[in-house]
Amino acid sequence: MSRYECIDFKVVLSAYLDGELAAPGRADADRHLLACRQCRDLLENAERSDEAIRALCARDPAFAERAGVRRSTLYRHFPDEASLFDACSSHWNAANPPPDLAEWAGIDDPDERLERALPELYGFYRRTEPMLANLLRDEATNENVQRHFGAFRGYMDAARNVLMQGRHDRGQARSRVRAAIGHALAFETWRSLVREQGLGNVQDAKLMGGFVRATAGARAARR
Ligand SMILES: [Zn+2]
What we know:
Oligomer: single chain
Strand content: under 5%
Largest sheet: none
Number of helices: 13
Radius of gyration: 24 Å
Number of domains: 2
Bound molecules: zinc ion
Helix content: over 70%
Shape: elongated
Number of strands: 0
Structural class: mainly alpha
Order of helices and strands: HHHHHHHHHHHHH
């Protein structure tokens, strides 16, 4: 059997706190605690707050299953599934911040701003693809996901507004540019370019940047 490490204790911490560890697991944990000051401190902290559980949840939402902890144990620390989901997603958001819209807004020229924005956003999609794909898949059937994804859609609307700043198209031309930008920003668009069309890093942003510029330029050319 491999050596009992701090990570082994962290995995069973919630069960340990709730007295749900079977005797052999508890004995292993107790032996480790006697020898490990760090884990004693961790346990002390966890007893005072549910922060440890939130942290584990953020690192690996499936840890409860791996550790053999019943979901009810986890839920005891949270009033309901929604607050557990919120705790997990706020940790996830903190670890995976989307591009800073204020920085985009600081660029005066709309085409230059778009050139900066698309690679940043597509880089974010590349880093977070599995999570975003799961959220998209579950959005229609899970109200917690709907709520969480609602915030993300709010961010996307704000991103599109920032990229529309300084564009002078009016009427239907403006609607087309707005739609082109919204389409270029969408996760589904990036995914199609990269997963279905096999485009690489950089090329994806170049293609969509050109698409928006062509849409915005179509009116200027006819004028
Ligand atoms: Zn330890």
